[in-house]
Amino acid sequence: MTVVRAAGVLLLMLICLSCGETYRPVATPIIPSLPNPGFSHFALVISGNGSDHPGASTSINVSGDTAESQSTVGLMPMHAAVVLNGTRIYVANSHDDTVSSFSPTSPTPVTTISLPAGSAPSFVATAENASVYVANSGNNTVSAITMASNVLEQPVYGISVGIDPVWLAETPNLQKLYVANRGNGAGGGSVTSINPVDRSVNPPISNATWVSPVSVAARSDGNRAYVLDQGSGLVSAIDTASDTVVNSVSVGVGANFMLYDATRNRLYVSNPVANTVTYLQASTDALSATVLAIANPISVAVLPDGTRAYISSAAFSTSGGVTYVTSRVTVINASSGSTTTTIPLSTVKAQPGCGPNPSELSMAAAADSSRVYVGNCDAGNVAIIQTLSDTMLLQLPAPESATFSDGTPLPQNPVFVVAGP
After folding, report:
1. 3-state DSSP call for residue 41?
2. Out of 55, 68, 216, 320, which residue is the most buried by the measure of CB atoms under 10 Å away?
Protein backbone atom coordinates (compact mmCIF):
# COMPACT_ATOMS: atom_id res chain seq x y z
CA MET A 1 0.00 0.00 0.00
CA THR A 2 2.86 2.33 0.87
CA VAL A 3 4.40 1.68 -2.54
CA VAL A 4 1.11 2.50 -4.30
CA ARG A 5 0.77 5.77 -2.39
CA ALA A 6 4.34 6.74 -3.16
CA ALA A 7 3.75 6.02 -6.85
CA GLY A 8 0.64 8.22 -6.82
CA VAL A 9 2.44 11.11 -5.21
CA LEU A 10 5.28 10.79 -7.71
CA LEU A 11 2.78 10.82 -10.62
CA LEU A 12 1.15 14.01 -9.29
CA MET A 13 4.55 15.68 -8.94
CA LEU A 14 5.41 14.80 -12.53
CA ILE A 15 2.11 16.22 -13.75
CA CYS A 16 2.69 19.48 -11.87
CA LEU A 17 6.22 19.80 -13.17
CA SER A 18 4.96 19.12 -16.67
CA CYS A 19 2.36 21.89 -16.35
CA GLY A 20 4.96 24.35 -15.20
CA GLU A 21 7.56 23.63 -17.86
CA THR A 22 5.44 23.19 -20.99
CA TYR A 23 4.23 26.31 -22.90
CA ARG A 24 0.60 26.07 -23.93
CA PRO A 25 -0.23 28.85 -26.41
CA VAL A 26 -3.46 30.77 -25.98
CA ALA A 27 -5.56 30.95 -29.16
CA THR A 28 -6.57 34.57 -29.69
CA PRO A 29 -9.04 35.00 -32.56
CA ILE A 30 -8.02 37.60 -35.14
CA ILE A 31 -11.05 39.53 -36.38
CA PRO A 32 -10.41 40.79 -39.90
CA SER A 33 -11.28 44.33 -40.91
CA LEU A 34 -14.85 44.41 -42.07
CA PRO A 35 -15.29 45.28 -45.74
CA ASN A 36 -17.12 48.41 -46.79
CA PRO A 37 -20.84 47.75 -47.22
CA GLY A 38 -21.88 46.97 -50.77
CA PHE A 39 -22.74 49.78 -53.17
CA SER A 40 -26.30 48.50 -53.55
CA HIS A 41 -28.08 51.88 -53.36
CA PHE A 42 -26.80 55.39 -53.87
CA ALA A 43 -27.77 59.03 -53.71
CA LEU A 44 -26.36 61.63 -56.07
CA VAL A 45 -25.60 65.23 -55.09
CA ILE A 46 -24.99 67.98 -57.66
CA SER A 47 -22.99 70.99 -56.41
CA GLY A 48 -22.35 74.40 -57.91
CA ASN A 49 -18.97 76.15 -57.90
CA GLY A 50 -19.84 79.64 -59.05
CA SER A 51 -20.29 80.78 -62.64
CA ASP A 52 -16.63 80.43 -63.67
CA HIS A 53 -15.64 77.05 -62.25
CA PRO A 54 -16.87 73.51 -62.93
CA GLY A 55 -19.34 71.99 -60.52
CA ALA A 56 -19.27 68.49 -59.10
CA SER A 57 -21.35 65.37 -58.74
CA THR A 58 -20.91 63.19 -55.64
CA SER A 59 -22.23 59.63 -55.33
CA ILE A 60 -23.05 58.60 -51.75
CA ASN A 61 -23.08 54.95 -50.78
CA VAL A 62 -26.34 54.49 -48.86
CA SER A 63 -25.10 51.49 -46.86
CA GLY A 64 -21.72 53.01 -45.99
CA ASP A 65 -22.77 56.67 -45.57
CA THR A 66 -19.67 57.65 -47.51
CA ALA A 67 -18.85 59.66 -50.61
CA GLU A 68 -18.09 56.84 -53.02
CA SER A 69 -17.05 58.80 -56.11
CA GLN A 70 -16.89 62.32 -57.45
CA SER A 71 -17.18 63.61 -61.01
CA THR A 72 -16.45 67.04 -62.44
CA VAL A 73 -19.37 68.50 -64.41
CA GLY A 74 -19.99 71.79 -66.22
CA LEU A 75 -20.62 75.37 -65.15
CA MET A 76 -23.57 76.00 -62.83
CA PRO A 77 -25.18 72.55 -62.89
CA MET A 78 -28.88 72.66 -62.02
CA HIS A 79 -30.46 69.23 -62.36
CA ALA A 80 -29.64 65.57 -62.92
CA ALA A 81 -31.36 62.35 -63.96
CA VAL A 82 -30.47 58.77 -63.02
CA VAL A 83 -31.17 56.52 -66.01
CA LEU A 84 -30.64 53.00 -67.37
CA ASN A 85 -31.47 51.36 -64.04
CA GLY A 86 -28.99 53.52 -62.18
CA THR A 87 -25.98 52.91 -64.40
CA ARG A 88 -25.82 56.37 -66.00
CA ILE A 89 -26.16 59.98 -64.90
CA TYR A 90 -27.02 63.05 -66.98
CA VAL A 91 -26.46 66.57 -65.58
CA ALA A 92 -27.78 69.82 -67.07
CA ASN A 93 -25.13 72.57 -66.88
CA SER A 94 -26.90 75.87 -67.38
CA HIS A 95 -23.96 78.26 -67.79
CA ASP A 96 -21.91 76.53 -70.51
CA ASP A 97 -24.75 74.96 -72.54
CA THR A 98 -23.67 71.38 -71.90
CA VAL A 99 -24.90 68.09 -70.48
CA SER A 100 -22.48 65.83 -68.56
CA SER A 101 -22.83 62.05 -68.71
CA PHE A 102 -21.02 59.49 -66.53
CA SER A 103 -21.34 56.40 -64.33
CA PRO A 104 -22.38 56.94 -60.68
CA THR A 105 -19.78 54.46 -59.42
CA SER A 106 -16.79 55.81 -61.36
CA PRO A 107 -15.68 59.45 -61.46
CA THR A 108 -14.24 59.17 -64.97
CA PRO A 109 -14.65 59.34 -67.85
CA VAL A 110 -17.20 62.15 -68.11
CA THR A 111 -18.75 62.67 -71.53
CA THR A 112 -19.73 66.26 -72.36
CA ILE A 113 -22.59 66.82 -74.83
CA SER A 114 -22.61 70.35 -76.26
CA LEU A 115 -25.94 72.03 -76.91
CA PRO A 116 -26.55 75.02 -79.20
CA ALA A 117 -25.22 78.30 -77.80
CA GLY A 118 -27.68 80.02 -75.52
CA SER A 119 -29.56 76.82 -74.60
CA ALA A 120 -29.11 77.26 -70.82
CA PRO A 121 -30.30 73.73 -69.96
CA SER A 122 -32.24 73.60 -66.69
CA PHE A 123 -33.79 70.13 -66.44
CA VAL A 124 -33.15 66.61 -67.68
CA ALA A 125 -35.50 63.61 -67.55
CA THR A 126 -36.66 60.42 -69.23
CA ALA A 127 -38.78 57.33 -68.59
CA GLU A 128 -37.17 55.23 -71.32
CA ASN A 129 -33.89 53.52 -72.19
CA ALA A 130 -33.32 55.08 -75.61
CA SER A 131 -33.32 58.87 -75.23
CA VAL A 132 -32.96 61.43 -72.47
CA TYR A 133 -34.61 64.85 -72.79
CA VAL A 134 -33.27 68.27 -71.80
CA ALA A 135 -35.32 71.42 -71.14
CA ASN A 136 -33.45 74.45 -72.48
CA SER A 137 -34.63 77.61 -70.70
CA GLY A 138 -32.44 79.89 -72.78
CA ASN A 139 -33.78 79.14 -76.26
CA ASN A 140 -37.22 77.70 -75.46
CA THR A 141 -36.51 74.20 -76.77
CA VAL A 142 -36.27 70.58 -75.66
CA SER A 143 -33.28 68.52 -76.84
CA ALA A 144 -33.16 64.74 -77.17
CA ILE A 145 -29.93 62.81 -76.60
CA THR A 146 -29.40 59.20 -77.69
CA MET A 147 -28.13 57.46 -74.57
CA ALA A 148 -26.31 54.68 -76.47
CA SER A 149 -24.00 57.18 -78.19
CA ASN A 150 -24.51 60.44 -76.22
CA VAL A 151 -25.26 62.25 -79.48
CA LEU A 152 -27.86 64.96 -80.03
CA GLU A 153 -30.83 63.72 -82.03
CA GLN A 154 -32.58 65.60 -84.79
CA PRO A 155 -33.45 68.37 -84.79
CA VAL A 156 -30.10 69.29 -83.22
CA TYR A 157 -31.34 72.82 -82.56
CA GLY A 158 -34.08 71.32 -80.35
CA ILE A 159 -37.86 70.95 -80.36
CA SER A 160 -39.58 74.32 -80.06
CA VAL A 161 -41.85 74.60 -77.01
CA GLY A 162 -43.11 77.52 -74.89
CA ILE A 163 -41.29 80.34 -73.12
CA ASP A 164 -38.75 79.23 -70.48
CA PRO A 165 -39.22 75.45 -70.19
CA VAL A 166 -38.21 74.42 -66.66
CA TRP A 167 -39.63 70.95 -66.00
CA LEU A 168 -40.21 67.70 -67.91
CA ALA A 169 -42.18 64.51 -67.27
CA GLU A 170 -42.52 61.53 -69.61
CA THR A 171 -45.43 59.17 -69.00
CA PRO A 172 -44.41 55.65 -67.91
CA ASN A 173 -46.07 54.20 -71.03
CA LEU A 174 -43.78 56.43 -73.14
CA GLN A 175 -46.71 57.96 -75.03
CA LYS A 176 -46.22 61.63 -74.08
CA LEU A 177 -43.53 64.01 -72.87
CA TYR A 178 -44.92 67.02 -71.00
CA VAL A 179 -43.09 70.33 -70.64
CA ALA A 180 -43.86 73.04 -68.08
CA ASN A 181 -43.03 76.43 -69.66
CA ARG A 182 -42.74 79.07 -66.94
CA GLY A 183 -43.28 82.09 -69.19
CA ASN A 184 -41.67 85.49 -68.94
CA GLY A 185 -42.50 86.39 -65.36
CA ALA A 186 -45.56 88.41 -66.27
CA GLY A 187 -47.53 85.53 -67.73
CA GLY A 188 -47.09 83.74 -71.03
CA GLY A 189 -46.78 80.34 -69.36
CA SER A 190 -47.92 77.17 -71.11
CA VAL A 191 -47.72 73.39 -71.15
CA THR A 192 -46.40 71.53 -74.21
CA SER A 193 -47.06 67.89 -75.09
CA ILE A 194 -44.52 66.05 -77.30
CA ASN A 195 -44.80 62.62 -78.93
CA PRO A 196 -41.54 60.80 -78.03
CA VAL A 197 -41.79 58.43 -81.02
CA ASP A 198 -41.39 61.07 -83.73
CA ARG A 199 -40.68 64.24 -81.65
CA SER A 200 -43.79 65.94 -83.03
CA VAL A 201 -45.51 68.60 -80.93
CA ASN A 202 -49.21 68.20 -80.17
CA PRO A 203 -51.73 71.06 -80.30
CA PRO A 204 -51.55 73.48 -77.35
CA ILE A 205 -53.14 72.29 -74.12
CA SER A 206 -55.91 74.78 -73.52
CA ASN A 207 -56.32 76.21 -70.03
CA ALA A 208 -57.39 79.76 -69.34
CA THR A 209 -55.52 79.71 -66.04
CA TRP A 210 -51.94 79.05 -67.27
CA VAL A 211 -49.75 81.80 -65.81
CA SER A 212 -46.39 80.32 -64.86
CA PRO A 213 -46.27 76.50 -64.76
CA VAL A 214 -43.16 75.38 -62.84
CA SER A 215 -43.60 71.63 -62.41
CA VAL A 216 -45.23 68.66 -64.12
CA ALA A 217 -45.59 65.02 -63.02
CA ALA A 218 -47.00 61.89 -64.67
CA ARG A 219 -49.20 59.42 -62.80
CA SER A 220 -47.82 55.89 -62.57
CA ASP A 221 -50.52 54.47 -64.87
CA GLY A 222 -49.74 57.06 -67.56
CA ASN A 223 -53.36 58.22 -67.81
CA ARG A 224 -52.90 61.57 -66.09
CA ALA A 225 -50.30 64.34 -65.98
CA TYR A 226 -50.35 67.05 -63.32
CA VAL A 227 -49.16 70.63 -63.67
CA LEU A 228 -48.34 73.06 -60.86
CA ASP A 229 -48.84 76.68 -61.86
CA GLN A 230 -47.05 78.99 -59.44
CA GLY A 231 -48.74 82.13 -60.75
CA SER A 232 -52.32 80.89 -60.49
CA GLY A 233 -51.78 78.61 -57.51
CA LEU A 234 -53.53 75.71 -59.25
CA VAL A 235 -52.69 72.07 -59.78
CA SER A 236 -54.35 70.86 -62.99
CA ALA A 237 -55.00 67.25 -64.02
CA ILE A 238 -54.55 66.49 -67.73
CA ASP A 239 -56.11 63.51 -69.49
CA THR A 240 -53.08 62.24 -71.41
CA ALA A 241 -55.20 60.55 -74.10
CA SER A 242 -56.86 63.81 -75.18
CA ASP A 243 -54.52 66.41 -73.65
CA THR A 244 -57.44 68.16 -72.01
CA VAL A 245 -57.58 69.60 -68.49
CA VAL A 246 -60.16 67.63 -66.51
CA ASN A 247 -59.87 69.45 -63.18
CA SER A 248 -57.91 72.12 -61.33
CA VAL A 249 -57.61 72.63 -57.56
CA SER A 250 -56.06 75.47 -55.64
CA VAL A 251 -52.91 75.05 -53.54
CA GLY A 252 -52.32 78.80 -53.19
CA VAL A 253 -50.48 81.36 -55.31
CA GLY A 254 -46.73 81.02 -54.81
CA ALA A 255 -46.60 77.23 -54.60
CA ASN A 256 -43.36 76.30 -56.37
CA PHE A 257 -42.56 72.62 -55.78
CA MET A 258 -44.53 69.43 -56.54
CA LEU A 259 -43.62 65.79 -55.95
CA TYR A 260 -45.55 62.71 -57.07
CA ASP A 261 -45.59 59.83 -54.58
CA ALA A 262 -46.19 56.66 -56.60
CA THR A 263 -46.55 54.48 -53.49
CA ARG A 264 -49.56 56.36 -52.16
CA ASN A 265 -50.61 57.83 -55.52
CA ARG A 266 -50.59 61.38 -54.22
CA LEU A 267 -49.03 64.76 -54.98
CA TYR A 268 -47.18 66.88 -52.43
CA VAL A 269 -47.06 70.63 -53.09
CA SER A 270 -45.06 73.11 -51.01
CA ASN A 271 -46.03 76.78 -50.78
CA PRO A 272 -43.51 79.00 -48.94
CA VAL A 273 -45.77 82.03 -49.43
CA ALA A 274 -48.77 80.46 -47.68
CA ASN A 275 -46.62 78.40 -45.27
CA THR A 276 -48.40 75.21 -46.29
CA VAL A 277 -47.75 71.79 -47.76
CA THR A 278 -50.76 70.29 -49.50
CA TYR A 279 -51.11 66.68 -50.52
CA LEU A 280 -53.63 65.71 -53.16
CA GLN A 281 -55.04 62.23 -53.73
CA ALA A 282 -54.40 61.44 -57.40
CA SER A 283 -56.52 58.28 -57.56
CA THR A 284 -59.47 60.35 -58.80
CA ASP A 285 -59.81 63.63 -60.68
CA ALA A 286 -61.37 65.23 -57.60
CA LEU A 287 -57.81 65.63 -56.21
CA SER A 288 -59.06 65.78 -52.63
CA ALA A 289 -56.69 67.92 -50.59
CA THR A 290 -55.17 67.79 -47.11
CA VAL A 291 -53.39 70.97 -46.02
CA LEU A 292 -50.52 70.92 -43.54
CA ALA A 293 -49.30 74.07 -41.79
CA ILE A 294 -45.51 74.12 -42.31
CA ALA A 295 -43.53 77.34 -41.94
CA ASN A 296 -41.34 78.22 -44.94
CA PRO A 297 -41.51 74.83 -46.71
CA ILE A 298 -38.98 74.30 -49.49
CA SER A 299 -38.85 70.71 -50.73
CA VAL A 300 -40.41 67.30 -50.04
CA ALA A 301 -39.14 63.71 -50.06
CA VAL A 302 -41.18 60.57 -49.39
CA LEU A 303 -40.03 57.13 -48.32
CA PRO A 304 -40.63 54.43 -50.95
CA ASP A 305 -42.19 52.26 -48.22
CA GLY A 306 -44.98 54.85 -47.93
CA THR A 307 -44.68 55.48 -44.19
CA ARG A 308 -43.39 59.04 -43.98
CA ALA A 309 -42.86 62.30 -45.81
CA TYR A 310 -39.99 64.69 -45.07
CA ILE A 311 -40.33 68.44 -45.60
CA SER A 312 -37.35 70.79 -45.60
CA SER A 313 -37.83 74.36 -44.42
CA ALA A 314 -35.70 77.50 -44.35
CA ALA A 315 -36.22 80.52 -42.10
CA PHE A 316 -34.35 83.77 -42.75
CA SER A 317 -33.11 86.33 -40.25
CA THR A 318 -30.82 89.37 -40.39
CA SER A 319 -28.19 90.41 -37.89
CA GLY A 320 -25.64 93.15 -38.40
CA GLY A 321 -26.60 93.42 -42.05
CA VAL A 322 -25.93 89.71 -42.62
CA THR A 323 -28.70 87.29 -43.62
CA TYR A 324 -28.75 83.91 -41.91
CA VAL A 325 -30.65 80.75 -42.85
CA THR A 326 -31.97 78.31 -40.27
CA SER A 327 -32.94 75.01 -41.86
CA ARG A 328 -34.80 71.99 -40.54
CA VAL A 329 -36.77 68.94 -41.65
CA THR A 330 -40.31 68.13 -40.51
CA VAL A 331 -41.29 64.46 -40.52
CA ILE A 332 -44.89 63.63 -41.40
CA ASN A 333 -46.78 60.39 -40.80
CA ALA A 334 -48.02 59.67 -44.33
CA SER A 335 -51.13 57.85 -43.11
CA SER A 336 -52.45 60.50 -40.74
CA GLY A 337 -50.68 63.66 -41.91
CA SER A 338 -49.53 64.32 -38.34
CA THR A 339 -46.06 65.64 -37.49
CA THR A 340 -43.91 63.02 -35.78
CA THR A 341 -40.75 65.05 -35.19
CA THR A 342 -38.68 68.01 -36.37
CA ILE A 343 -34.99 67.60 -37.14
CA PRO A 344 -32.81 70.76 -36.87
CA LEU A 345 -30.08 71.05 -39.50
CA SER A 346 -28.08 74.28 -39.24
CA THR A 347 -28.00 78.06 -38.97
CA VAL A 348 -25.53 79.55 -41.44
CA LYS A 349 -24.92 82.68 -43.45
CA ALA A 350 -26.99 82.80 -46.63
CA GLN A 351 -24.96 82.14 -49.77
CA PRO A 352 -25.55 83.86 -53.14
CA GLY A 353 -27.57 81.79 -55.58
CA CYS A 354 -28.92 79.37 -53.01
CA GLY A 355 -32.45 80.58 -52.41
CA PRO A 356 -35.12 80.93 -51.48
CA ASN A 357 -36.10 78.26 -54.03
CA PRO A 358 -36.37 74.44 -54.11
CA SER A 359 -32.66 74.04 -54.88
CA GLU A 360 -31.78 75.56 -51.49
CA LEU A 361 -32.76 72.38 -49.63
CA SER A 362 -33.24 69.72 -52.29
CA MET A 363 -34.17 66.31 -50.89
CA ALA A 364 -34.29 62.63 -51.85
CA ALA A 365 -35.07 59.36 -50.07
CA ALA A 366 -32.93 56.25 -50.54
CA ALA A 367 -34.50 53.38 -52.48
CA ASP A 368 -34.44 51.17 -49.38
CA SER A 369 -36.14 53.87 -47.25
CA SER A 370 -33.24 53.83 -44.77
CA ARG A 371 -31.96 57.36 -45.39
CA VAL A 372 -33.14 60.81 -46.43
CA TYR A 373 -30.63 63.22 -47.97
CA VAL A 374 -30.89 67.01 -47.75
CA GLY A 375 -28.61 69.12 -49.92
CA ASN A 376 -27.96 72.19 -47.79
CA CYS A 377 -26.87 74.78 -50.34
CA ASP A 378 -26.06 77.54 -47.82
CA ALA A 379 -24.19 75.22 -45.42
CA GLY A 380 -22.18 73.49 -48.16
CA ASN A 381 -23.03 69.99 -47.02
CA VAL A 382 -25.48 67.12 -47.31
CA ALA A 383 -27.40 66.17 -44.19
CA ILE A 384 -27.98 62.42 -43.93
CA ILE A 385 -31.04 61.48 -41.89
CA GLN A 386 -31.36 57.95 -40.51
CA THR A 387 -35.03 57.05 -40.85
CA LEU A 388 -34.93 54.28 -38.25
CA SER A 389 -34.75 56.92 -35.53
CA ASP A 390 -35.44 60.04 -37.63
CA THR A 391 -32.26 61.69 -36.43
CA MET A 392 -29.45 63.35 -38.34
CA LEU A 393 -26.66 60.84 -38.78
CA LEU A 394 -24.01 63.19 -40.17
CA GLN A 395 -23.37 66.18 -42.41
CA LEU A 396 -21.20 65.23 -45.38
CA PRO A 397 -19.18 68.20 -46.70
CA ALA A 398 -19.50 69.12 -50.36
CA PRO A 399 -16.36 69.11 -52.55
CA GLU A 400 -14.05 72.10 -52.17
CA SER A 401 -14.91 75.18 -54.15
CA ALA A 402 -12.68 77.66 -55.93
CA THR A 403 -13.42 80.26 -53.24
CA PHE A 404 -11.09 80.67 -50.27
CA SER A 405 -11.68 82.08 -46.81
CA ASP A 406 -8.58 82.81 -44.71
CA GLY A 407 -6.63 80.46 -46.96
CA THR A 408 -9.11 77.61 -46.52
CA PRO A 409 -11.22 76.43 -49.47
CA LEU A 410 -14.95 76.78 -48.88
CA PRO A 411 -17.29 73.92 -49.80
CA GLN A 412 -19.32 73.99 -52.98
CA ASN A 413 -23.06 74.57 -52.81
CA PRO A 414 -25.29 71.48 -53.21
CA VAL A 415 -28.21 72.40 -55.47
CA PHE A 416 -29.86 69.09 -56.34
CA VAL A 417 -30.18 65.63 -54.79
CA VAL A 418 -31.56 62.51 -56.47
CA ALA A 419 -31.68 58.87 -55.35
CA GLY A 420 -30.65 55.90 -57.46
CA PRO A 421 -32.59 52.64 -57.68
Report:
1. coil
2. 55
* Residue 77, domain member (yes or no): no
Residue pLDDT, tens place only, 366-403: 999 999 999 999 999 999 999 999 999 999 999 999 88
Q: How far apart are the C-alpha atoms of 136 and 165, rounded to whole Å?
A: 6
List beta partners, residue 60: 43, 67
> Which contacts qualify for 32-40: CB closer than 8 Å, 24 or more apart?
36/61, 36/64, 36/66, 37/61, 37/63, 37/64, 38/63, 39/63, 39/64, 39/68, 39/105, 40/368
Q: What is the pLDDT of residues 184-204, one digit of tens each?
A: 977 799 999 999 999 999 999
Domain of 304, in residue numbers: 298-421
CATH number (domain holding residue 307): 2.130.10.10
Return the pLDDT at 8: 53
Tell me, what's the pLDDT at 36?
40
Distance CA(313)–CA(256), nearest Å, equals 13
Instruction: Tell me how many domains the chain contains.
Output: 1
